[in-house]
């Protein structure tokens, strides 16, 4: 901390204690072959679900388990279907180019059913013969894979709201959070036709609603086949129970944190912030992430502070252009997409991370990572984030979408920078991936023994 009280070097105590992550116990004889199913995978896709799946798979493989991952991927050349990476066996299914040019009906169908994926999965099961299948996500793969795995022990991690919300995020096109499907799924029709620019179909709402009702009924019925659901937050679990999923088979387990990447240094070194305290955003530059709310609020903060925004500018270029036009504070910097290996270095430069999301976040990986390096978090009071950020302890909360409320929080932290240091001292990091993997192994073994 400098003489003005700025948290130039955030608390590293909790992080330092984990700088040498413990290894999980060697694989027991009762459990050897584990299969994961996921909708996308690194390096082609770097979302939170994909990164979590890859980290967990590597950790289990290092402990001696035989880990196989089934997932679709585009532009796959012949002979590249099966590869091994860091001891993990990848079974990659070619995603046809025709998917890019599908009509809306086929596109909708393929979000939860795909005959070619189902056939490939049957071959996968026959060849690998896993003792347990852990589904991370099946959107765009096929939900029927859950049914095909039913003779074996299988569990599902709920990373979002996809099993009862077709867009998976419970947010309306008008940017308001959604309570879920209405009777007959008529509100789902409004949402889907608005997103696909097919508003004329609203006149056929009762008819168009039938596929949505079928989808949700089908996915809910599949839930009866699942041995166990895992939810990373109480909020997510409560949402699923409210929509009819079995409360007695949904357990809350926080995702594990891959601590190894937090220790890496950025090469070349990242630019130093232009002013302190240094706030940061790290994530998708999409409107549901609320970056425009953050910029509007930061425009009203004194010049003795800076904000760095990390995120790809290619996915939603129109929104990024709006953000840049909105930014008037002299110390707002757009730093582009941050490679995963530089996340730790970027967070260590920050005095505070801001997560201004406008949708029901479940368990943002970036909050775990910030806490992993001792950086407090300011987040919107929405979804599961009040579970992750205790207001006034390891961070601050504000009303989602309320520029004035966020402005007040940021001004308060700039005026009282010692508060950032105090919050950093109270951070409790998420469990490391080795600890998390140990927990999952005990669950796996219990379910397998229960089936016997």
Task: Explain this structure.
- The protein is of the alpha/beta class and 452 residues long.
- The protein folds into two domains: 31-256 and 432-451, Glycogen Phosphorylase B (Rossmann fold, 3-Layer(aba) Sandwich), CATH 3.40.50.2000; 260-425, Rossmann fold, CATH 3.40.50.
- Helix content is 35%, strand content 15%.
- The chain has 16 helices and 14 strands.
- The protein has helices at 13-17, 48-62, 104-109, 115-128, 144-148, 186-195, 205-222, 234-242, 291-298, 317-326, 343-349, 365-372, 385-388, 403-415, 418-425, 433-451, and strands spanning 33-37, 66-74, 82-85, 88-95, 132-135, 153-157, 228-231, 250-252, 278-282, 306-310, 332-336, 352-355, 377-380, 395-398.
- The protein has an eight-stranded mixed beta sheet with strand order 3-4-2-1-5-6-7-8, sandwiched between helices.
- It is globular.
- The N and C termini lie far apart (58 Å).
């Amino acid at each position: 901390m400098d003489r003005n009280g700025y948290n130039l070097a955030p608390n590293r105590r909790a992080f330092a204690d984990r700088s040498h992550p413990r290894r999980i116990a060697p694989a027991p004889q009762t459990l050897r072959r584990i299969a994961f199913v996921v909708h996308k995978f690194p390096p082609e896709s770097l979302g939170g679900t994909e990164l979590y799946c890859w980290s967990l798979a590597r950790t289990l493989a290092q402990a001696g388990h035989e880990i196989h991952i089934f997932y679709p991927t585009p532009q796959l050349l012949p002979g590249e279907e099966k590869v091994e990476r860091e001891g993990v066996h990848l079974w990659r299914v070619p995603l046809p180019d025709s998917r890019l040019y599908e009509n809306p009906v086929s596109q909708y169908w393929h979000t939860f059913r795909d005959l070619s994926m189902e056939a490939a999965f049957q071959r996968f099961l026959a060849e690998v013969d896993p003792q347990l299948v852990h589904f991370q996500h099946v959107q765009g793969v096929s939900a029927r894979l859950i049914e095909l795995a039913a003779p074996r022990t299988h569990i599902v991690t709920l990373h979002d709201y996809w099993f009862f919300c077709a867009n998976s995020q419970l947010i309306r096109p008008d940017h308001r959070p959604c309570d879920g499907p209405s009777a007959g799924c008529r509100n789902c029709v409004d949402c889907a036709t608005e997103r696909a620019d097919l508003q004329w179909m609203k006149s056929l709402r009762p008819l168009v609603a039938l596929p949505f009702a079928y989808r949700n009924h089908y996915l809910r019925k599949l839930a009866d086949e699942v041995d166990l659901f895992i939810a990373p937050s109480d909020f997510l679990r409560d949402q699923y129970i409210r929509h009819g999923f079995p409360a007695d088979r949904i357990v809350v387990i926080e995702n594990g944190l891959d601590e190894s990447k937090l220790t890496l240094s950025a090469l070349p070194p990242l630019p130093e912030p232009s002013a302190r305290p240094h706030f940061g955003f790290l994530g998708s530059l999409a409107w549901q992430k609320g970056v425009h709310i953050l910029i509007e609020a930061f425009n009203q903060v004194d010049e003795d502070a800076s904000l760095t925004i990390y995120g790809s500018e290619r996915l939603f270029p129109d929104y990024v252009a709006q953000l840049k036009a909105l930014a008037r504070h002299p110390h707002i910097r757009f730093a582009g997409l941050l490679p995963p290996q530089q996340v730790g270095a970027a967070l260590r430069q920050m005095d505070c991370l801001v997560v201004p999301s406008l949708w029901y976040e479940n368990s943002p990986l970036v909050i775990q990572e910030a806490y992993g390096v001792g950086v407090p978090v300011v987040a919107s009071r929405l979804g599961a984030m009040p579970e992750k950020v205790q207001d006034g302890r390891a961070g601050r909360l504000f009303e989602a979408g309320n520029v004035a409320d966020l402005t007040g929080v940021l001004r308060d932290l700039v005026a009282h920078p010692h508060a950032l240091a105090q919050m950093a001292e109270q951070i409790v990091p998420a469990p490391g991936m080795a600890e998390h993997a140990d927990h999952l192994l005990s669950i796996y073994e219990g379910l397998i023994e229960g089936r016997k």
